[in-house]
Amino acid sequence: MNAIIFCGTIGSGKTSVAKEVARLLNAPRVSFGDYLRRVAGERGLDTANREVLQDLGLEFIKDPRAFCAAVLSQASDWRLRTDLVIDGVRHAAALDALRQLLSSANVLFVYMEPPPDALEARRAERGDDPTALSHPVEQEITSLRELADVIVNEDEDPEKSAVEVVSRLSRDT
Fold it and tell me: What is the pLDDT of residue 138?
């Protein structure tokens, strides 16, 4: 069983590539962002407001194991027998907790790092608020780069990047 964990800054392409990897592997995909949007909705908060989601992330990361277990529970039928794609890690504590929770899995940690011009263009196209990058929840992401098993320099083609990730997974298993 493989667990492929994606990390990257806002607009780095992590969700696009994670979805494509899940499709290629026919594996479930869970997402920290999807989990936080669900919780925000349950609390009557604005699910489209990035700062609301970032603040919730800071709240939940205080107990990283519980946070990660809740995110993993999004794949209710998954039980360490198939591959799993995990999207949106933003903290070393979350990565550590996932490694503990998935200790019997082959974990591949993928850091998404598109070229700066592609990243800026993507953020502008999506209308991302530049101030979101200065939120405390985003500050730890670049330090996770050094922990990555794979660094993907995706710029325009999530399918190509997904094939790169899957081929690396095949070499490591």
Answer: 87
| Residue 56: per-residue pLDDT | 96
Residue type present at position 146: E
How far apart (Å, rounded) are the C-alpha atoms in residues 129 and 102?
A: 34
Pairwise CA distance, residues 125 & 57, whole Å: 25
| Lookup result for tokens 């530049």 | 130
Please state the domain count of the chain: 1
Give the chain's mean pLDDT.
90
State the Cα–Cα distance between residues 77 and 129, nearest whole angstrom: 36
User: Does position 83 have pLDDT exceeding 70, yes or no?
Assistant: yes
User: Are the CB atoms for 109 and 149 separated by under 8 Å?
Assistant: yes
* Residue 79 burial class via C-beta count within 10 angstroms: exposed 0-12, middle 13-18, buried 19 and up: exposed
CA 162, CA 23: separation in Å to the nearest integer? 9
| pLDDT at residue 107, rounded to an integer | 93
* CATH number for the domain that contains residue 39: 3.40.50.300
CA dist., res. 108 & res. 173, Å (int)? 10
Is residue 173 predicted with pLDDT exceeding 60? no
How far is it, in rounded angstroms, from Cα 156 to Cα 135?
A: 26
What is the number of helices (H) and of strands (E) in the chain?
A: 7, 5
Q: Where in the sequence is the domain holding 84, given as residue range(s)?
A: 2-172
